[in-house]
Write a sequence for this structure.
């Protein structure tokens, strides 16, 4: 057996699996996005040109869902990276000696986002929830967390509190990986405290920060679980992310063609984003 | 300020942050230990008269909401979703690590899946599953969750095989051993720690997944995360908060215990995954 035959054999199982599980669905996606399709004629869709795309692009809800996803992804990624960075650097001296602290701080990451959302259903409930209880007790008032005005702040906070640990973990590891000689050399030159962080440590952590921001943005952009179990499409659609929009058009309103057209658009946008992010990362040498 | 005082403040900050981010879990745990009467009388975090009756009540409604069936479905689907990525990625990881094979196409494709919103495949998969009878089966759910786990599995395995000394398999090769023998008898045993990490990490991810469980199952194959949400849709008399809280705790025990056991390895592989992804 030659090496190249061997290589092909080694790759075959995974390639076949991907073709069946993703290749085939992608082709279906493309065909159905140009078709008139409902639950009744699922097997025999009829070609309708770009109708689905036109109706998607004219649907204000599609745009508000895209805007929500973009805003949510950027805001949460930004907040998580800032908080994670502050925590990692500030707590590093004590965590270094007590590594069990890491386990305590990354515990929220082990909880399913859907379960986290359900926990907040209980926690924020105006009669049985602990948070309104304490807010009434201490502040004399408690906001309507899931009202149209407050709901974005609420889901933003929930996502940030659950995933700041992810950013913290990456940053702590990157911070600990900075060679001691670097710090010593900088200290000899008179750098310490904030200056040391700003001019020496932070630039060394920059690639990790970029990666953490990218991963968190992606996960925030495609958010579904926690928002879906907490508000459904509720709060007047104020929390409909793109994933939730696709889900709802598919199941509730039976606009399968539209849901699929939206999927294809999302696919293309993600693909482009990945392509450019990859080039950017490679150029910065991460 | 002396170093001691500074560190004392750090400890206080740590305790405060740990309490805030884990507050939902603590509040849910506390509610699960209260009677229905106590929950409405005392919504705070401290339990006055702890009881396990909510956990017992989960079993009473099991004719309508069968938690054993949810747990079993999650177990089957998650096992498939953790074994399959290893079986599929291990051979390719060897080709990538040792020969640089697939570095231009397969490897980046799989790794970039991490960043794809997988809902775009959900609807065509629904149709596909419907025609081949995989809809509402733990196998069908396990297969797509295996796709979710591929990127990290491949990354961790490529890194692990990179760490295996080259001479080991080269020597076996000169002795005339076939590639599959080398993979199974030499590389596989050395990579066992990495394989265990992949397994556990994939298991947690699959166990915690919600979207595909929601879309691709209806009655027979409902996983624990989706099943737990059923306890929150008030059937008649409103939500039984104590029981619902107990269900969340039951659903979360598995990933949390696995996570605590594995946190050191998980942090290391997350680095591998994130930095190279």
């Amino acid at each position: 057996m030659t090496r190249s035959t061997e290589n092909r054999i080694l790759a075959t199982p995974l390639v076949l699996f991907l073709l069946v599980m993703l290749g085939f669905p992608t082709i279906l996606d493309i065909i159905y996005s140009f078709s008139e399709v409902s639950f009744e004629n699922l097997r025999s869709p009829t070609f309708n040109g770009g109708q689905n795309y036109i109706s998607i692009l004219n649907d204000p809800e599609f745009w508000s869902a895209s805007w929500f996803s973009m805003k949510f992804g950027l805001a949460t990624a930004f907040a998580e990276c800032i908080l994670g960075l502050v925590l990692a650097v500030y707590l590093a001296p004590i965590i270094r000696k007590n590594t069990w602290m890491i386990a305590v701080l990354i515990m929220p990451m082990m909880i399913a986002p859907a379960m986290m959302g359900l926990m907040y259903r209980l926690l924020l409930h105006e009669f049985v929830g602990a948070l309104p209880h304490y807010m009434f007790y201490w502040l004399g008032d408690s906001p309507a967390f899931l009202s149209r005005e407050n709901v974005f702040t609420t889901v933003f906070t929930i996502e940030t509190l659950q995933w700041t640990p992810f950013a913290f973990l990456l940053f702590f590891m990157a911070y600990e990986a900075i060679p001691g000689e670097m710090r010593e050399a900088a200290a000899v030159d008179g750098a310490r405290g904030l200056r040391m962080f700003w001019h020496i440590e932070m630039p060394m952590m920059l690639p990790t920060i970029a990666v953490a921001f990218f991963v968190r943005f992606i996960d925030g952009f495609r958010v579904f679980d926690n928002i879906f179990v907490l508000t459904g499409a509720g709060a007047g659609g104020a929390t409909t992310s793109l994933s939730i929009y696709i889900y709802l058009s598919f199941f509730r309103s039976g606009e399968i063609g539209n849901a699929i057209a939206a999927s294809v658009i999302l696919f293309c946008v993600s693909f482009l984003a990945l392509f450019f992010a990859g080039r950017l990362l490679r150029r910065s040498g991460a | 300020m002396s170093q001691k005082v500074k560190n004392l403040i750090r400890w206080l900050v740590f305790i405060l942050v740990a309490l805030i981010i884990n507050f939902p879990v603590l509040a849910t745990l506390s509610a699960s230990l209260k009677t229905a009467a106590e929950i409405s009388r005392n919504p705070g975090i401290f339990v006055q008269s702890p009881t396990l009756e909510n956990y017992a009540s989960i079993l009473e409604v099991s004719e309508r909401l069968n938690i054993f069936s949810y747990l079993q479905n999650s177990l089957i689907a998650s096992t498939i979703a953790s074994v399959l990525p290893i079986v599929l990625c291990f051979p390719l990881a060897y080709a990538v690590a040792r020969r640089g094979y697939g570095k231009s196409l397969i490897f980046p494709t799989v790794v970039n899946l991490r960043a794809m919103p997988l809902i775009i495949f959900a609807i065509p998969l629904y149709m596909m599953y419907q025609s081949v009878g995989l809809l509402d089966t733990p196998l069908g759910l396990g297969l797509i969750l295996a796709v979710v786990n591929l990127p990290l599995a491949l990354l961790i395995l490529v890194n692990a095989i990179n760490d295996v000394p080259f001479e080991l398999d080269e020597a076996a090769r000169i002795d005339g051993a076939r590639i599959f023998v080398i993979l199974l008898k030499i590389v596989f045993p050395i990579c066992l720690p990495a394989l265990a990490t992949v397994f556990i990490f994939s298991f947690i991810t699959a166990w915690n997944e919600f979207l595909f469980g929601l879309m691709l199952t209806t009655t027979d194959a409902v996983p624990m995360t989706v099943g737990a949400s059923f306890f929150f849709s008030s059937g008649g008399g409103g939500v039984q908060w104590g029981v619902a809280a107990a269900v969340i705790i039951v659903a979360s025990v598995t990933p949390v215990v696995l996570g605590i056991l594995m946190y050191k390895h998980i942090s290391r592989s997350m680095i591998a995954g994130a930095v190279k992804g």
In short: Chain B touches chain A through 96 residues (CB under 8 Å). The CA atoms of residues 126 and 241 of chain B lie 33 Å apart. Chain B has one domain: 67-276. The domain at 67-276 of chain B is CATH 1.10.3720.10 (MetI-like fold).
